């Protein structure tokens, strides 16, 4: 799938074993690991075996993507996953990360818009949700700009470096997404 936002043309493709080293290199410490994966079972230091176990779960209920720049298709620049519930009514966007040297170029926005299109147009879910740590202000603003609504706060759900982090639960419904400009 090709997507273009603000002049950034990316292609989403299925996550491949060759993407593992890039993904690991973007997660440069325990804080970055929690920011990326929450409490999903990954432990620091992140290694190839953990990523392979995650990738082995890919199927109809879990999609995992790598984003590449159209001009350099061999270099991963972002990653995201989409988990679909059993009845197919809702999906959860997760593990969104953009390569550090690719941030600030609209890639995250392009990636999330592409995931929204897959969730609502291809899969046909009614609700797309996500969790984001409160201190990840850039991501919170992006999700709000793309129509996600804060539904609640999970207070102090992760301990990182001796500090408790809270997270926001956010979601967008299919009819909200369909009536947004540019969808």
From TrEMBL:
It holds the Pfam family Acetyltransf_1. Residues 10-175 form the N-acetyltransferase domain. One of its GO terms (molecular function) is acyltransferase activity. It comes from the Bacteria. Coiled coil: none annotated. Its EC number is 2.3.-.-. InterPro entries: Acyl_CoA_acyltransferase (IPR016181), GNAT_dom (IPR000182). It is an enzyme of class 2 (transferase). Keywords: Acyltransferase, Transferase. This is GNAT family N-acetyltransferase. It comes from Sphaerisporangium dianthi.
